[in-house]
Write a structure and sequence with these properties.
354 residues, Isopropylmalate Dehydrogenase, 2 domains, twelve-stranded mixed β-sheet, 17% strand
Amino acid sequence: MNRTPRIAITPGEPAGIGPDITVQIAQQAHHAELVAIANPQLLKARATQLGLPLTIKPYQPSQAAQPSAAGELIVDAIPLNTSIEAGAANPQAAGYVLATLDRAIDLCQSKQLNGLVTGPINKHIINQYLQQCSDDASRVNSEFFSGHTEYLAQQTQTSKVVMMLATNPAADPKEGLLTRPLRVALVTTHLPLKAVAEAINHDDLKQTITILQHDLIHHFGISDPTILVCGLNPHAGEGGDLGDEEIRIIEPCLAELRAQGMRLSQALPADTLFTDKYLANADAILAMYHDQGLPVLKSHGFGRAVNITLGLPFIRTSVDHGTAFDLAGSGQANSSSLLAAINMAVDLCQSSYG
C-alpha cells in the first residue's frame, strides 16, 4: 500500500505572499506529493518575478502518489478570470480563492487527497466580494466569511471543529523559544470580544474538550494527554468577584470530564498559566478566546507555528501569518510557516495510517 500522502495546498490570496511561498517550498523535495489547487499561470508568473525555476505538472489522480521533487509543482488548475498584480488587492479575485478552497475540500472528502494546507487569505476582501454577490443563493456562506476554520466546517457539514495552533520545540533554547511543543486550542474563534462570554456554554465546552482529547490521542500519539484550561475572566473570576462563568459553566464541565478519566486542570488564570511551572507538564492549553492564548504562542514561535483544524473529516493545517501584501513579489517572504504546516500535515496523515 502506497504510504506517500497527497497533500493539497491552497496558496490563498493571489496578490499576497501565498503564491510566493508556494513557489519557494517547491524548490525543495518533500516526503509527500504536494498538489497546489491554484492557477498555474499565476504561479509561473510569480516564479518568474521571483527569479526562481518552476516546472508545473498537471495533477494525475489515477497515478500513485510520489514524493514531490525539487523544482517541480503538481497543480490542479483553477481558472482566474481577473488580472493580478503582486501586492495590489483585487476583490474580484476572491471568487477564485473560494473556488480553490471548494475544490480542495471536494478532493479531500472524496479521499483523492489526504490533507489540506491553506495559505493566507484576506477575510475583508472576501467579504467585499460576497457582498457583491449576496443574491447568489448557490454560494454557501454568501453573507459573511469569518475565516478558514468556520468555512471548512460549514462546507463539510461538520457540526463542531476546534482551532488549535502548535509550535515545535526550539532547536536552540538561546533563541528564546520554548523547548517543548506548545499547543493552544480555542473554545471560541473569530468573535468580537463582547460576544465571547455569551458563546461559552456547557455543551460547546464539553464538545471542544472531547475533540481536543480525541485528536491529541489519535493524531498526535499522546496516550493520556494533560490539558490546562484558561479561565475566562481575570484571575479566573476571583471566586466570582470578577465574573461567575468559571463557577457556573467551566468548572462543572471540567469536573464532569475528569470523572470520565480526562486529565484536566481547574480553570487557571491566563496571566500565569503560560509559565514554566505549568507548561512543563502540559500537552495542550485550552484558551477561551482567540486573543487569550494565541499572542503567547505566536510570541514564542511566529513563523514556525502551525494552525490545525481539529474535528474535520480530513487533516487541515495552515500558516500562522497573513497575506503580507507589502512583501508579495519581492522575494523577501519567509516560507518557514508553510513548510512547518506541510510537515505537520504529513506527520498527521502518516499517524492516521495506524
